[in-house]
Design brief:
The protein is built from 9 helices and 15 strands. It has 256 residues and is an alpha/beta fold. It has a 6-stranded parallel β-sheet with strand order 5-4-1-13-14-15, with helices on both faces. The longest helix is centred in the middle third of the chain and has 12 residues. It binds magnesium ion.
Length: 256
């Protein structure tokens, strides 16, 4: 497949949990040497940008903040574009999300009962009182924004509840419906597109039919499914529509 820009998912593509996918750093280096611009794109909202950059560099994949979009940075970027700098937010999420929102001038108020916006992500510290405060704020008129709606968070011992599970609790509690920023929804796909200025032929590589491949389709970009993450070969064969390409892992990806 010929492409000059590549949107690459991280978990299940470059690494799985704490382990690098064999051959992934070499494949990315090879594609970059052929002139491909690679933008890493992840729905995981907990990790901060600095931690991601350090992690990729530690795997031997040179990267800086311009090479990476996370559902947290996209959420912050989108809220800033809409003029929400200065707004007050109640956040059900981790440091990656909090830092991204503060970075665009949104106040993160953990103990507040009122807010302009309630933002959800993956939150390992979630407790009833934070859920209650968020629900009361939404019922009082705060808009509800979600970094992503992934139901599960894949871990070595199985599927943990994902950001979408936390969002579902809040939606059930309030009857509100969130606007979702992450893959496969438009804000994240368009944020990725903005990082490919002047590049026309863009492909997406990911391990999830529901986020990566659906996001590719939403943009009219070819989707490359890798079987190194959450999707089995059996599930890939049943996918409708079919990905443009199915590979065991990114190590097999060639620009030709
Ligand atoms: Mg993935």
């Amino acid at each position: 497949m010929i492409f000059d820009g590549l949107v690459s998912d991280l978990d299940g593509v470059v690494y799985r949990g704490n382990e690098v996918i064999p051959g992934a750093p070499e494949a990315i280096a090879r594609l970059r040497a052929q002139g491909v611009r690679v933008v890493f794109c992840t729905n995981q909202s907990v990790t901060t940008m600095a931690e991601y950059v350090e992690r990729l560099n530690g795997l031997g994949i040179p990267a800086d903040a311009g090479d990476l979009v996370t559902s947290s940075t996209v959420t912050a970027e989108e809220l800033e574009r809409r003029g929400h700098a200065g707004a007050r937010a109640i956040v059900l999420g981790g440091e990656g999300l909090r830092e991204a929102l503060r970075g665009v001038g949104i106040g993160v108020e953990d103990e507040a009962d009122r807010a302009d916006i309630v933002v959800t992500g993956l939150d390992f510290e979630l407790d009833y009182s934070s859920l209650r405060r968020a629900a009361l704020a939404v019922r009082a008129g705060a808009s509800l924004v979600a970094t992503n709606d992934d139901p599960a968070y894949p871990q070595p011992d199985g599927l943990w509840p994902g950001a979408g599970s936390i969002l579902a609790a809040l939606e059930t509690a309030t009857g509100a419906k969130a606007e979702v920023m992450g893959k496969p929804h438009r804000p994240m796909m368009e944020a990725a597109a903005r990082r490919f200025e002047g590049i026309e032929r863009i492909a997406v590589v990911g391990d999830s039919l529901h986020s990566d491949l659906a996001g590719a389709r939403a943009m009219g970009w070819p989707g490359i499914l890798v079987l190194s993450g959450v999707t089995s070969r059996e599930a890939a064969e049943l996918a409708d529509p079919q990905p443009e390409l199915v590979l065991e892992s990114i190590a097999e990806l060639e620009r030709d």
